[in-house]
Design goal:
The chain is mostly helical and 493 residues long. It has 15 helices and no strands.
C-alpha cells in the first residue's frame, strides 16, 4: 500500500512561483553566458586582426639586381640606380637581402714614448677604429675618426672650426664632378700609366666626402671604381697594379688596398651596401701586403726581399695607411699588428738629426718636408702623435714648409701628407700651414673642377695622368678638415 501526500492549493501556488523564478533565473544566466562568450570571441577576433603582419612591399627592381649580383662575376659596367643623397649621410641603404672644438697641442717638450710595443696588440685606436654598438649596417658602424665626413652639416662645422671655408666644400664637390666626367668606361682613371694607383687615389677622394655606391650624384662612379679594383684583385690573387713588370707597382698596390679597404668599411660594413667580392678582395690584397713586407720592416720596390735597403719611407707610408684602413674593416688578417710594429720601427730608424725623416736612411733628402710629413703621419695615425718622431717632424715642417702653386714649392704629393700631419699637430703651426696651402689650392681650381698645372714635377704637365693626379691630391687636401679625426689636436676616444 502506498501513501500519497496531497498539497494544499497555497503550497502548489508557491511551488509554481518557485519554478517560474528558477526558469527565469536560468534563462538570464544562459543569456549572460552567451553574451560573455560573444564578447570574448569578439576580443580575440579583434586582437588577431590587430596583430596581423602587414604585407611587405619590396622594390622588385633592386631585389632582382642584387640576386643577380650575388651569382654573377663582378661587372665593371652597371646600370645601378643610386638613390641616397650625397650631400648628407645616407638615409637609404642597400640591404644584402638588399664639431669638435680645436684643442691645440702645446708647444712644450714631453717625454718620448717608447717604441717598444711589447709582444701583444699594443696599438690604441689611433684615428679611431672603434665603432658604436649595434649589429648590421648603419651609422654606428662608421669608425669614430670617419663620421664627420658623412653629413654636410658636420663637414661645414669642421671647416669653420679648423680654418676652412665653405669654398673648400664647393671646390671638393666641383673636383669630384670633374673626376666623374673623366672616368673611363671600365671604372678606372688615367690612361695606361699607373691606372690602378690613380683609380685608388680617385676612389679615396670620393670616399673622403662619404660618397658611397648609394650616393645620388656619385653612386655609379664609386661602384664602377670599386668593381674595377675588385676585379683586378680577384684576377691576380690579391695583387693590384697596372703593370707587374714595373718596379714601382708596390705604390699602386698600397694605394689601391687603402682605397678598397676604406670602401669596405664605409660602403659595406657601415651602410650595408652589397658589393660582390669586396671583402674577399680586401682580405687577399691586404694579406699579400703584409706577407710581402721586407724583413727589415719596410716595403721594397716590386716587393723584393733581396735588396739590403729594406724599402724606403715613400713606399712605407702608403702601406701603413693601407694597414690602418684594413684595421678599420675588422676582417681577419694574420700578423697585422706585428707588421705595423715593424713598419713604425723601420720609420723611426730614418729620423735625421734635423728632426725630419730620410728616404732610406737617417739623412735628409731635398728640403725634408715631404718625407718629414709622411713619417709624422705614420706615427699619428697609429696613436703615436706625442712621440718625438711625430712632434719633431711637425716642428720641422712648421719652420721649413713653403707653398707656391707656380713655383718649385708646389709638390702636391708632399703637401698631401703635410696637410694631414699639421692639422693633427694643431695649434699655431697648423694655422700657419693652413694659410700657406688653402687659398693656393682654392685659387688654382679651374671652372671644370680640375686644377691648373703647377711648377713641380709630374704636376707640371697637361697630360691626362697629370690632370687626374693634381685633382685627386688637391681634393684630398681640401677634405683634410673633416676626412679624419682627431684634427687640430682633438681626441675621439
Amino acid at each position: 500500500m502506498s501513501l500519497h501526500a496531497q498539497l494544499s492549493p497555497e503550497a502548489q501556488a508557491r511551488l509554481a512561483a518557485q519554478r517560474r523564478t528558477s526558469t527565469i533565473t536560468s534563462l538570464i544566466i544562459a543569456i549572460l553566458m552567451m553574451t560573455l562568450i560573444g564578447v570574448i570571441l569578439l576580443i580575440i577576433a579583434m586582437k588577431f586582426s590587430k596583430d596581423e603582419i602587414p604585407e611587405l612591399i619590396s622594390y622588385s627592381a633592386e631585389n632582382i639586381e642584387e640576386e643577380e649580383l650575388d651569382v654573377r662575376k663582378v661587372q665593371t659596367q652597371t646600370q645601378r640606380k643610386p638613390s641616397a643623397p650625397s650631400s648628407s649621410m645616407a638615409k637609404v641603404i642597400a640591404a644584402n637581402s638588399a664639431s669638435p672644438t680645436a684643442i691645440p697641442v702645446p708647444e712644450i717638450d714631453v717625454p718620448d714614448p717608447s717604441l717598444n710595443f711589447g709582444d701583444g696588440d699594443g696599438f690604441g685606436d689611433g684615428w679611431g677604429d672603434g665603432s658604436d654598438s649595434g649589429a648590421g649596417g648603419g651609422f654606428g658602424n662608421i669608425p669614430a675618426s670617419m663620421k664627420k665626413r658623412c653629413s654636410r652639416a658636420d663637414r661645414l662645422s669642421r671647416l669653420n672650426s679648423s680654418g676652412g671655408t665653405e669654398k673648400c666644400e664647393d671646390a671638393v664637390v666641383n673636383g669630384l664632378r670633374f673626376l666623374k666626367k673623366t672616368q673611363n668606361k671600365d671604372g678606372s682613371w688615367s690612361g695606361q700609366k699607373h691606372t690602378v694607383g690613380m683609380t685608388g687615389l680617385a676612389l679615396l677622394a670620393f670616399l673622403g666626402h662619404c660618397e658611397t655606391t648609394m650616393s645620388e650624384e656619385f653612386g655609379e662612379t664609386v661602384f664602377s671604381a670599386i668593381t674595377y679594383l675588385v676585379n683586378k684583385a680577384m684576377k691576380n690573387k690579391g695583387k693590384l697594379a697596372t703593370d707587374f713588370k714595373d718596379n714601382h707597382w708596390c705604390y699602386e698596390h698600397g694605394i689601391a688596398v687603402y682605397a678598397i679597404a676604406e670602401a669596405y668599411t664605409l660602403c659595406q660594413k657601415s651602410f650595408g651596401e652589397n658589393i660582390p667580392n669586396l671583402p674577399e678582395a680586401v682580405q687577399a690584397s691586404t694579406q699579400f701586403l703584409i706577407n710581402s713586407q721586407h724583413q727589415g720592416g719596410g716595403w721594397e720596390y716590386a716587393y723584393s726581399e733581396d735588396n739590403g735597403r729594406g724599402g724606403d719611407l715613400s713606399i712605407v707610408a702608403w702601406h701603413l695607411q693601407a694597414l690602418k684602413a684594413a684595421k678599420h674593416t675588422g676582417l681577419e688578417l694574420k700578423n697585422l699588428t706585428s707588421s705595423v710594429r715593424a713598419g713604425l720601427e723601420y720609420t723611426a730608424g730614418l729620423r735625421t738629426p734635423e728632426g725630419t725623416f730620410g728616404y732610406s736612411g737617417p739623412r735628409m733628402k731635398d728640403d725634408g718636408v715631404t718625407l718629414g710629413a709622411a713619417g709624422a703621419l705614420c706615427f699619428q695615425m697609429w696613436d703615436k702623435s706625442s712621440s718625438k718622431e711625430a712632434r719633431g717632424a711637425c716642428k720641422f715642417i712648421d719652420e721649413n714648409a713653403k707653398f707656391g702653386w707656380n713655383t718649385p714649392d708646389s709638390d702636391l704629393y708632399g703637401h698631401y701628407y703635410a696637410a694631414q700631419c699639421m692639422i693633427n699637430f694643431g695649434g699655431d703651426p697648423w694655422k700657419r700651414y693652413n694659410e700657406k696651402f688653402r687659398d693656393q689650392v682654392l685659387n688654382n681650381q679651374l671652372p671644370d673642377g680640375s686644377f691648373k698645372p703647377t711648377g713641380f714635377g709630374a704636376f707640371k704637365g697637361t697630360s691626362v695622368f697629370g690632370k687626374h693626379y693634381r685633382a685627386c691630391l688637391s681634393i684630398l687636401m681640401l677634405e683634410v678638415y673633416y676626412r679624419f679625426l682627431p684634427a687640430t689636436g682633438a681626441k675621439t676616444k
